[in-house]
From TrEMBL:
PROSITE patterns: MFS
Origin organism lineage: Bacteria, Pseudomonadati, Pseudomonadota, Alphaproteobacteria, Hyphomicrobiales
Source taxon at top rank: Bacteria
Listed transmembrane segments: 21-45, 57-77, 84-102, 108-125, 145-165, 177-200, 221-249, 261-280, 287-306, 312-336, 348-369, 375-393
Protein name: MFS transporter
Keyword Repeat: no
Length: 404
């Protein structure tokens, strides 16, 4: 194996910075696509679903799309490289907008669910953007590369909700018809931006060059990272999916719900400017622990009232918790993989995270419609405790191993 020289590391970091900038812009557009779906999906679902308890089913199907695409996207990246794979995935983003438009204009719940599945497929590819910039980065720069890409979500948090507010009545009398056309246009723009990334195509996988899948799950560091990432993402999705529906149920407006999602998404990605530095200074496990604590605080705030400001404060804290928890867990996952395993390990991690997330998303609609907004937030506490326990156990085990 050829040793990596300081000059090679510096060149790799320069390329990683360039790619991080391009991928941050792509994240902004892909994230806006997702934000639109989260801001409108449950509201449209409540209008089109045969029974109200299925109002959040479109968002749940979005999550199924996320989980379904995670492994195929990884294989596509391995075969054709990240740039081509990501551009192919933008087709799903365009289809999201087109099927969404057809769903609301034809009042078809199944067609709208197809739109949300396509949105999930597109978002699955976008989720791996955070790892793409890290491909050429040194170990020291890798957490920063991941967090820099995530800063694109700040713009997504503005563009997505504003697209909803500006276009929801653009094609009267059908609510959100213009919004979904806008989604398709944004996906096309993302495809153009992605043509500027420069990431070496992964080397062909040589038989026996990576561990079997079972070996990853015997690796305590990997298992802990997946557990924390899955818990953080599942809770964020579980609460965020229910929030717009709960706000409408509390007599707040569609615009109020859209702005609530806007502030939530900004909080999700805003800290990314310095999350990487926090990880480098304090370590990923401590940053993940802070994220779990913020998620629990979000639920506590939500239980104190149902005014617009209560919803906004809870959603902002939820977004902050997701940022620290998920980026920290992503850095932990990246640290467990050998260079030749990265694409495979990332795909397995995303499949696990989104699979667990799908369970939470499916249950979200049932919980909020059957038991109310308070119960949605009460569910947060035991899951946070489970993830925190796994993290603490891993840290104690590592300390004992180092002491020995």
């Amino acid at each position: 194996m050829t040793a990596t020289t300081p000059d090679m590391q510096a060149a790799g970091d320069r390329l990683a910075r360039r790619n991080a900038f391009v991928l941050a812009l792509a994240t902004a557009l892909a994230g806006a696509n997702t934000t639109v779906m989260f801001a409108t999906g449950a509201i449209v679902g409540a209008e089109l679903a045969p029974v109200r308890s299925l109002a959040t089913l479109p968002i749940s199907i979005f999550v199924v799309g996320l989980a379904t695409a995670s492994l195929p996207v990884g294989m596509l990246i391995q075969r054709v490289g990240r740039r081509a794979a990501y551009q192919i995935a933008t087709i799903a983003g365009v289809l999201t907008g087109l099927f969404g438009y057809l769903g609301v204009t034809l009042s078809s719940f199944p067609i709208f669910c197809v739109a949300t599945f396509c949105a999930g497929f597109y978002a699955s590819a976008a989720q791996s953007y955070r790892f793409a910039a890290a491909d050429t980065a040194s170990d020291a720069f890798r957490p920063k590369a991941i967090s820099w890409v995530m800063t694109g979500g700040i713009l997504a948090g503005v563009v997505g909700p504003q697209l909803v507010v500006w276009t929801k009545d653009a094609l009267p009398p059908i609510l959100f018809a213009g919004t979904y056309i806008g989604q398709a246009v944004i996906a096309l723009m993302a495809g153009v931006i992605l043509s500027f990334i420069d990431i070496p195509k992964p080397k062909p996988v040589v038989a026996g060059s990576h561990r079997p899948v079972s070996a990853y799950f015997r690796d305590r560091a990997f298992l802990t990272a997946v557990t924390c990432g899955a818990a953080t993402y599942m809770l964020m999705n579980f609460v965020m999916t229910a929030a717009p529906l709960a706000m409408i149920g509390c007599n707040h407006s569609v615009a109020d719900a859209a702005y609530g999602i806007q502030w939530h998404v900004i909080a999700m990605y805003g800290p990314s400017f310095f999350t990487g530095s926090f990880i480098a200074r304090f370590g990923a496990p401590r940053v993940v622990a802070a994220g779990l604590a913020l998620t629990a605080l979000s639920a506590a705030v939500a239980l104190t009232g149902i005014t617009v400001m209560h919803f906004y404060a809870a959603l902002v804290l939820l977004g902050l918790g997701w940022n620290f928890g998920y980026i920290g867990a992503s850095a932990m996952v990246a640290a467990t993989a050998e260079p030749q395993e990265r694409t495979r390990v990332q795909s397995i991690n995303d499949f696990c995270v989104f699979g667990v997330m799908a369970i939470g998303s499916f249950s979200s609609g049932q919980v909020v419609t059957s038991y109310g907004w308070d119960m949605v937030n009460i569910v947060v506490f035991p899951i946070v405790a489970l993830a925190a326990g796994a993290l603490l156990l891993r840290q104690l085990t590592s300390s004992r191993g180092q002491a020995a």
